[in-house]
Amino acid sequence: MTHQPYIDGSALGLEPERSFGIDESLVRTCEIALSVGRVDELDGLIEGLHASDLADLLEELSTESRHLLFDHVRDRLDPELLTHLDDVVREDVLEQLEPAEVAAVITELDTDDAIDVFEDVAAEDQASVLARLSPSDRALVERALTYPEDSAGRLMQHELVTVLKDWSVGNTIDYMRERAADLPRDFYAIYVVDDDHQPVGTVPLSRLMRNQRDVRIDDIMLTELRSAHVEMDQEEAALMFRQYALLSAPVLNDTGQLVGVITADDIVHVIDEEAEEDILRLGGVREDDFYEAVLDTTRARFSWLLVNLGTAIIASLVIGLFDAAIEQVVALAILMPIVASMGGNAGTQTLTVAVRALAMKELTPANAARIMGKEVIVGGINGLLFAILMGVVAWFWFGDPTIGFIIAAAMVFNLLIAGFAGVTVPFVLERMRIDPAVGSAVVLTTITDVVGFVSFLGLAAIVLL
């Protein structure tokens, strides 16, 4: 099939925006064709689309149109299409397939992709799908499901090429030609194993093809292996790939036997997934709910908003302690949100950097004190600069230099605390085995709000009253 990575939207008067993917004109045209029942026009519109582009199209269509389009292509379904869909959308379209159809799709996929698809099959249909798989495929799926979620065992593909070290280059090439149907679709290296199926080396395909047929494998193999255990967290595996610039890595079981391989394309998905997860959690969203129904999205976000309400009440109680000062000096009510806001924003900047550094294993107990010191200094410098700026503004705004001094002093103190808390909060949560991306933002904003209000209003109560 010829790939058509870009659909020209000039017919609808739209300028092309990128050189890959789908454009708005295709989505509109398909939506119209589906809404008026002109299904026969779809083939001309989607012909040549790559599986990932067709997945994008399905995601951008309305739910009703998505069902109609998927039903139109299900008889000639490219199994790769399902691997490119968002999890929520994939669950939705899988409900349109019979267990036998799902089993046929899983059979065509590499084991790592097959597991991703199988996990999104409705729980009540999973047993039926498993029953329709061949004994070998069923055994692979069932074994993969025994490994922890988000582990190397779930991420790996079982299809790989292994040879013995006393083989020759010629033996290896002939073996791969004879077993072509059983080889993985994409692979970068051949793994050399001993009699116990434990890896002793690897031969990159480029090195294999550059040598003569009579050269022994153990003469050209690389003996330095970076391997992952089946229960290694996928984020740790991604860091290993980054650290050592790997294209693939063997996965070993408890006895050191080679059971699978992780490839670079798997790691790309992991990096994207982990980054998305951290961003969503920092924003108070547990998971990607972009394609969820309204009630499901509302329910998922309510709990986090409830926590934020609690922290807001705490800040309000602090303000209530200084109600007498606020009643007598109206300027305090006008200016106090500025101190809290600046502290919260400065802390969030530090927090974002710290959470990333923790995820990348760059912030450790060995350098934590130095990083904290740096962020406190940065907070202090920014605090002084903004204190001068805001102090002058407040002085001229209310015609009172004392007001300018109070907000300046409070801003310096709050930004110092923000820099310290921005590193300390995620670091402490991580040491407590709590995901710093989940709770750091709430704790930080509570600290900067409370410290900002106490420092500003407390100083005002002392100086002005």
Determine the structural class based on helices, strands and strand pairing. Answer: mainly alpha
Helix content: 55-70%
Number of E-type strands: 6
CATH architecture type of the largest domain:
Orthogonal Bundle
Q: In what range is the share of β-strand residues?
A: 5-15%
CATH T-level fold name of the largest domain: Tetracycline Repressor, domain 2
Rounded average pLDDT: 85
Distance between the termini: 81 Å
Number of separate structural domains: 3
Q: What best-fitting shape do the alpha-carbon axes yield? A: globular
Alpha-carbon Rg, integer: 29 Å
Q: Any low-confidence stretches, pLDDT <50, length ≥5?
A: 1-17
What letter string, H or E per element, gives the SSE order? Answer: HHHHHHHHHHHEHEEHHEHEEHHHHHHH
Describe the structure.
64% of the residues lie in helices and 6% in strands. A hairpin with a 5-residue loop joins strand 2 (189-193) and strand 3. It is globular and about 90 Å long. The protein starts with 23 loop residues before the first helix and ends with a helix. It folds into three domains: 10-154, Alpha Horseshoe (MgtE N-terminal fold); 162-264, CBS-domain (Roll), CATH 3.10.580.10; 294-464, SLC41 divalent cation transporters, integral membrane domain (Tetracycline Repressor, domain 2), CATH 1.10.357. By secondary structure, the protein is mainly alpha-helical. It is built from 22 helices and six strands. The strands form two sheets. Strands 1-2-3 form a three-stranded mixed sheet. Helix 7 packs across helix 9.
